[in-house]
Amino acid sequence: MSPHPCDDLTAAFARLGGAADQQVWSDLWNDLCHQGSVYEDSFPALPYLAAIATGRAPGEPQEAVLMAGLIVSAADQEHGARYAGEISALLPVARRLLGAATDHPPTFVHLLQCVLAFEGERVWSAGRLEGLFEQEYEIECPACASELFIAFGDHGTFVSAGDYVRADPVKAALLPADPATLAPLPARLHRTASQAGHGQIALGLTYLFGRAACPDCGGDSPVSQQVGER
């Protein structure tokens, strides 16, 4: 494993457009964004990814948008200015793909993060929405520093301290937010998921932007604040 992308991006992306595209994308992900990491040398890939996404170069547009979204989620102001043209071109493609992602929750969430990244949002675009399809989060109680496990799926809806699979874990309440009282961004995310038919993602957003009680100290805190700080 190399922590740095390949030196010749032109040659790397020129391999796309054939029967081996799946392997080419695997190699590009490994070189440019290994295990979800973004490097300084990842950003020069954005012009190539924007060209693929907009149909000006061979390759799978959704794959290009997903990779570009991850890279842009780590962009600072300088990167945003340098690649403003590419980001502007990627945003409508990401919105179109998001509108079509009605049957696969993980793809929907990843594309939603891409849209946020291209719009300049830097908290919820950076992987923090992925707990919505995993239906779990780990946070820290701000009052007593206990590690808390939050579940809102097949395991039930609760907060536990430590590992929820241990025998008879102590559980506390996970309190969902009222969708009608959500702040503008979470309200928009909830509305987008609902309109796309992703009811479980929409429900998960009410828990993500709700409150978690701590089994150890009895206090409660906003889940989103703790997730955003991790």
Summarize the structure.
With 230 residues, the chain is of the alpha+beta class. 48% of the residues lie in helices and 12% in strands. The strands form 2 sheets. A 4-stranded antiparallel beta sheet has the order 1-2-3-4.
Please describe the topology of this protein.
Elements: H1 9-14, H2 21-32, H3 46-53, H4 61-73, H5 77-82, H6 84-100, H7 105-119, H8 131-134, E1 136-140, E2 147-153, E3 156-161, E4 171-172, E5 174-175, H9 184-195, H10 199-208, E6 211-213, E7 220-222, H11 223-229
Antiparallel strand pairs: 1-2, 2-3, 3-4, 5-6, 6-7
Describe what this molecule looks like in 3D.
With 230 residues, the chain is an alpha+beta fold. It folds into 2 domains: 9-119; 134-229, no CATH class. 48% of the residues lie in helices and 12% in strands. It has 11 helices and 7 strands. It has helices at residues 9-14, 21-32, 46-53, 61-73, 77-82, 84-100, 105-119, 131-134, 184-195, 199-208, 223-229, and strands at residues 136-140, 147-153, 156-161, 171-172, 174-175, 211-213, 220-222. A 4-stranded antiparallel sheet has the order 1-2-3-4. Helix 3 runs antiparallel to helix 4 (61-73), helix 4 packs across helix 6 (84-100) and helix 9 (184-195) runs antiparallel to helix 10. The radius of gyration is 19 Å and the shape is elongated.
